[in-house]
Design a protein that fits this description.
The structure is a single chain. By secondary structure, the protein is an alpha/beta fold. The chain is built from 3 helices and 5 strands; from the N terminus they run E-E-H-E-H-E-H-E. It has a 5-stranded mixed sheet, sandwiched between helices. It is globular and about 30 Å long.
Length: about 100
């Protein structure tokens, strides 16, 4: 299965290792994803990255994700809907943290 990504907004320094990676997979949750990301980046602990993998949403999800400029957010968008579990596995493959945490 080809997991090509149409857009990669990785903004972190490649050599840094965050304490944990927060994995967020999305499909058509434009009305909720902004609040979820805002909540994540508002935490007082800051040694983490957020991996967002949008599963080719047809709503405004991608635009909402792209509206964030926090360098801890690494966003990817699938070119086709690959299904929930392949999208989750893709997001996990992009994580660099010592630990994984999932925000569903």
């Amino acid at each position: 299965m080809n997991l090509s990504v149409s857009e990669d907004r990785t903004m972190r320094v490649p050599d840094s290792t965050p304490f944990f990676s927060l994995i967020v997979v999305n499909y058509n949750n434009g009305d909720l994803i902004g609040e979820a990301l805002s909540s994540a980046i508002a935490q007082t602990f800051s040694d983490f990255e957020v991996i967002v993998s949008d599963n080719c949403s047809t709503d405004n999800s991608w635009e909402v994700v792209c509206s964030f400029s926090d360098p801890r957010i690494n966003a990817f968008r699938q070119t086709a809907n690959i299904g929930m579990y392949p999208n989750l596995n893709f997001a996990v493959s992009k994580a660099r943290g010592l630990y994984l945490k999932f925000l569903n």
